Amino acid sequence: MAAATATRFCQQLSSVSDMSPDWTTKEVSTGTTIMAVEYEGGVVIGADSRTTTGAYIANRVTDKLTPIHDRIFCCRSGSAADTQAIADIVTYQLGFHSIELDEAPLVQTAANLFKASCYRYREELMAGIIVAGWDKRRGGQVYTVPVGGMLVRQPVSVGGSGSTYIYGFMDSNYKPNMTKEQCLHLVSGALSLAMERDGSSGGVIRLAAISESGVERQVILGNQLPKWSTA
Amino acid sequence: MREGLKTQDGGIQYDLSASTFSPDGRVFQVEYAMKAVENSSTAIGIRCKDGVVFGVEKLVLSKLYEQGSNKRIFNVDRHVGMAVAGLLADARSLSEVAREEASNFRSNYGHNIPLKHLSERVAMYVHAYTLYSAVRPFGCSFILGSYDQDDGPQLYMVDPSGISYGYWGCAIGKAKQAAKTEIEKLQMKDMTCRELVKEVAKIIYIVHDEVKDKAFELELSWVGEVTNGKHELVPKDVREEAEKYAKDSLEEEDDSDEENM
Questions:
Q1: Is there a contact between A106 and B111 if contact means CB atoms under 8 Å apart?
Q2: Of the candidates B83, B80, B93, which has an alpha carbon nearest to the alpha carbon of residue B41?
Q3: Is residue B1's pLDDT more than 70?
Q4: Closest by alpha carbon to B223, among B18, B93, B46, B91?
Q5: CB < 8 Å to B150, chain A
Q6: What single string gives the DSSP state of each residue in A41-80?
Q7: Are the C-beta atoms of residues A64 and A208 closer than 8 Å to each other?
Q8: Could you give the count of Cα atoms lying within 13 Å of A42 in the half-sphere of its Cβ?
Q9: What is the overall mean pLDDT for chain B?
Q10: Contacts of B61 (CB under 8 A, 6+ apart)
């Protein structure tokens, strides 16, 4: 969604016409659908796997779920370069902080570090990030840091260009205090719907469940995606 | 160089700067700084089930002093308090250092600074002043106490050498040995702040030397469930109750002494 606005803006600015394909000029973007859900004892996070430069799919098996620490992940949407750079910086800062404190870092700390970078450089960046993980003080938590650098904790959060298509689905199907399996089912169903409708989202579904015992990752391949229509 | 200057009996002085070790491996300047703390009146801090209580024996050198001036207990952050002994001016400057550390931490990481980390940061600062001949070590020890939802009650002490220690109960200043003996008698892990504040007042009254030091003011502060995590001076009614308990206990002991005679 944010990526679409950016690409239109760039088109007006650049002098290149229809002579060359758009993927020679467009920025690499994780068009994306990402989401994260809190449950009792942890969080479930999910993302699609499509990276685009304009209309060309530069990577159809992208991993947008990036580990920041042992029990803290972030879901990246927006500019691929910007989000990778920010994630690297926060990984360094959080790792240093954790060694200093001699204990596992809080999810809230990670989220604040993302916010600090995203807000300070808001004019230069295009990054919508969801920070999710587990810590022993407050359990599973989801924090969203959208474009602009706001920070807010939510029990459920969706992001990326494909998220617009699933707000209604989330509002009607999310209930508090779900189990891990129910969350996985909800996330994969929602992502599947978004990937069906959003041109910038697609590929495979990547899921991760983060809790005290660790991180369990899984992939749902294209032909195994939850089906919502008979077509 | 002055370090090679011979004293009258022919021995060489190793105590003139913090950048010199003595032959038996001591840094005298740091030890002298600790003597400055021992000359000061007593301060104690005790950690209990649901909070931390500080008590300071504040010697009143003149009747002309306004009551409550020259406080020896500082607020470092909303949830952190600091009681000091030694050179008060040095302690004040360190309280500013602690405040900045706590504030910067919250600004960078978005939550309260854990007390262990704060005491290590301030201890590192104190230690830096024990390395160079151009500066002198800080002449004060201080006790940091905090209460928050995540860690519960915490108590740490930092001394002029720049080491920090975690405690359940701790005393600094001239009567620290006597105070430690009294503190060891308490079962602080099972006590609440309300019970503990009376015991802290009693200990200060016990260790106060009526002969050598005349008047004193008792400064009491606490942080815990009872204050909703905010460090503050104990309210007037609680303090009066605590002082009454302290004075009554002392009289009882005096009476029991007389009976034994």
A1: yes
A2: B83
A3: no
A4: B46
A5: 137
A6: TEEEEEE---EEETTEEEESS---EEEEETTEEEEEEEEH
A7: no
A8: 20
A9: 91
A10: none
Q: Does B109 touch chain A (CB under 8 A)?
A: yes
Q: For residue B197, give the nearest of B48, B11, B93, B76 by alpha carbon.
A: B48
Provide φ and ψ at A186, rounded to 5°: -65, -45
- Is the Cβ of B104 closer than 8 Å to some Cβ of chain A? no
How far A67 CA sits from the closest chain B CA (Å)?
A: 18
> How many other CB atoms are there within 10 angstroms of residue B36's CB atom?
18
The Cβ of residue B23 has, within 10 Å, a number of other Cβ atoms equal to: 7
What percent of chain A is modeled with pLDDT above 70? 90
**C-alpha triplet B166, B172, B173: angle, nearest 5°:** 170
Backbone angles phi, psi at A134, to 5 degrees: -130, 135
The C-alpha atoms of residue A106 and residue B120 are separated, in whole angstroms, by: 19
pLDDT over threshold 80, residue B201: yes
Per-residue confidence band for A229, with pLDDT thresholds at 50, 70 and 90? confident
**Could B109 and A113 be called an inter-chain contact, meaning their C-beta atoms sit closer than 8 Å?**
yes
* B212 contact A CB<8A: no
Residue contact A109–B150, C-beta within 8 A: no
DSSP secondary structure string, B205-248? HHH--TTT---EEEEEEEEEGGGTT--EEPPHHHHHHHHHHHHH
Q: Chain A within 8 Å of B166 (Cβ-Cβ)?
A: no
Residue B176 CA to residue B159 CA, distance in Å, equals 13
Nearest to A112 among B109, B116, B150 (CB): B109
The maximal CA–CA distance of chain A, rounded, in angstroms, is: 58
Per-residue confidence (pLDDT) for residue B2, from 0 to 100: 43
**Phi–psi pair at B84, nearest 5 degrees:** -125, 160
Residue B236 burial class via C-beta count within 10 angstroms: exposed 0-12, middle 13-18, buried 19 and up: exposed
Q: Which residues of A are catalytic?
A: 32
Give the integer Cα–Cα distance in Å for A208 and A217.
4
- Angstrom distance (rounded) from CA A210 to CA A44: 6
Q: What distance in Å separates the CA atoms of residue B230 and residue B113, rounded to the nearest whole number?
A: 14
CA gyration radius, chain A: 17
Largest CA distance in chain B: 64
Nearest CA-CA distance, residue B79 and chain A, Å:
18
Question: Could you give the dihedral angle defined by the CA atoms of residues A53, A58, A62 and A67, in that order, rounded to the nearest 10 degrees?
Answer: -60
